[in-house]
Specification:
The chain is of the alpha/beta class. The strands form 5 sheets. Strands 1, 2, 3, 4, 5 and 6 form a 6-stranded antiparallel beta sheet that branches. It has a 5-stranded parallel beta sheet with strand order 9-8-11-12-13, with helices on both faces. The chain has a two-stranded parallel ribbon with strand order 7-10.
Length: 370
């Protein structure tokens, strides 16, 4: 499907439409920005724009343009109908179009509200580590983070308590006032998993950690365009000065033990793949048990799909399945690695599967020449 027209069930002001789209995009794991990306309003921040022009909603490598039927989307101006064009076949986009047609209210749990009170504080919960509960605050910002959140919450041990904050993907390059982009309240946590998908969002991390009371941070780098290395170093120093342990795995599925107990509680279940292969006949994969899997769920997916695959094909098949999941790590070449982060992620998985295949393959048969 290349294009469609949506008649709104009621007129919406431009700024109301933007807030509505941002809320649903955050919930569905879609990214939203404005086109043209830079609009010249001297001294006016992006949040104060009078005209939003067109809206671009992105998912993976695909995107959809959303335009008002007549003229640009503007603050204070009613929008009655929208024109959507681009790759509209993605399931998340189908859901978004359905919500637009009905103007169904977005879930309040995924909205990020600006702080209205002078002081922001963490919600009162049991103190860190009390009653054996491990509290994780997951901060998401787009599709990659949403998928990681969905898998973690479905596979987390019973003694984990998980909460989530969704940040806007529409941030200025320099954030002068963090309160404009932070929620009024943040759940208390022992550890923050910060899934940035915008180069400016790292500027918000120290404030979020302070609000949550967390003592450890995992801030993965699955794309250097999302988390510039210089910014990661700056934030790491800031967190160290706060007495907060931090690690920046590159990519997230390369995460291993850090010897920091709060962080390693998470690493026991999620991080660099660790699997055990069972073969009942010595020729095929009977079962691949995931001891520790990628937080996005890729390892669990590959484990299910490898059942019944011949052992001598398992490593190559694991690499293909890793791409088919698909892995959302960056395909941009990293100069210091000489490779892409997607390939680094794939190598982590293939090495682990190869190690298990070697254990189960057994010695090759020898033959006597007559």
């Amino acid at each position: 499907m290349r294009g469609t027209r949506i008649e709104l069930s009621r007129p919406m002001k431009g700024e109301e439409l933007i807030h509505y789209l941002q809320s649903w995009c955050g919930h569905l794991g879609l990214s939203l920005d404005y086109l043209p990306i830079i609009i010249s309003y001297s001294g006016v921040s992006s949040s104060e724009r009078k005209a939003f022009e067109r809206i671009r909603v992105s998912y993976g490598q695909d995107s959809v343009l959303i335009e008002a039927e007549h003229g640009p989307i503007e603050k204070g101006k009613d929008v009655n109908s929208l024109r959507l064009s681009g790759s509209l076949d993605d399931q998340s986009m189908q859901v978004l179009m359905g919500k637009l047609m009905k103007l169904e209210p977005p879930p309040s749990t995924t909205e990020v509200r600006s702080a209205t009170a002078p002081a922001r504080k963490a919600l009162q919960r049991a103190g860190p580590g009390e009653n054996g509960t491990y509290r994780i605050l997951v901060v998401t910002q787009g599709r990659w983070g949403e998928r990681t959140w969905s898998h973690i919450i479905s596979a987390a041990p019973e003694h984990w308590s998980l909460s989530r904050v969704a940040l806007s993907s529409e941030l200025p390059m320099l954030i002068d006032d963090a309160s404009s982009f932070l929620p009024a309240e943040v759940p208390g946590a022992d550890m923050v998993l910060f899934l940035s998908e915008h180069p400016s969002s790292m500027q918000l991390l120290p404030d979020l950690v302070q609000m949550s009371g967390a003592r450890a941070v995992i801030a993965p780098i699955d794309s250097s365009s999302w988390v510039p290395l210089g910014e990661a170093n700056r934030v790491a120093k800031s967190l160290m000065n706060m007495g907060v342990a931090s690690t920046f795995p590159r990519p997230l599925c390369s995460l291993r033990e850090t010897e920091e107990p709060i962080t390693d509680e998470f690493v026991r279940r999620f991080g660099a793949p660790s699997v055990e292969l069972e073969s009942y006949d010595g020729r095929t994969v009977g079962r691949l048990i995931v001891r520790r899997g990628a937080p996005c769920g890729c390892t669990d997916f590959v484990a299910r799909e490898l059942e019944g695959v011949p052992l001598d094909e398992a490593v190559a098949r694991a690499g293909l399945l890793h791409h088919h999941y698909p892995c959302l790590a960056s395909m941009a070449r990293e100069d210091d690695l000489g490779d892409t982060l997607m390939h680094v992620s794939g190598h982590e998985l293939k090495r682990e599967v190869e190690k298990e295949v070697r254990k189960r393959s057994g010695p090759r048969p020898s033959y006597l020449e007559p």
